[in-house]
Amino acid sequence: MNILKNKKTLLPLIFIVILSSILITGCSKEDTEDKIDVNGQTKQQSEQPGNLTINLPSMQCDKCKETIETAVRKMDGIREITVSVKDKFAHIDYEKSKIDVTQIENAITSAGYDANDKKADPEAYENLKECCKIPNDSKKKE
Fold first, then answer.
1. Rounded to the nearest 5°, which phi and psi values hold at 125?
2. Residue-wise pLDDT tens digits, 44-91
3. Could you tell me the CATH number of the domain that includes residue 71?
4. 90 closest CA partner among 35, 101, 99
5. What range does the domain containing 98 cover?
6. How far from chain centre, in Å, is Cα 38?
7. Looking at per-residue confidence, does 23 or 135 come out higher?
8. Could you tell me the pTM of the whole model?
9. In this structure, what DSSP letter does residue 120 have?
């Protein structure tokens, strides 16, 4: 009778332990395999989103906005850019694994605009339309 009692108690317990082991092992294997990329990084590490705000003190008008957005959007790793002419900043969402802040700032300065503490490329700035130049610089040419 003791053996029969133990079997009734033992079988459900063994079943629960085996089932739990299968579920835990199966889930962790799947998660690990799915999250590792070809470089050995987890997908979370390799696809980390970044977002930043870049000050654009030399931006003047909607044409400036368009030029900056175009310069930044064509870069690999840019998810979204929102430029505010009124507030003179750009909010940018990007993939940290593909691009960094310095590269984004360089794209903006290469387009002829100041980006944070980096000055615009002088030649690119000179080629901007007059409406895109700082008012004092525009007057100097006249």
1. -60, -45
2. 544 678 999 999 999 999 999 999 999 999 999 999 999 999 999 999
3. 3.30.70.100
4. 101
5. 44-141
6. 20
7. 135
8. 0.65
9. P
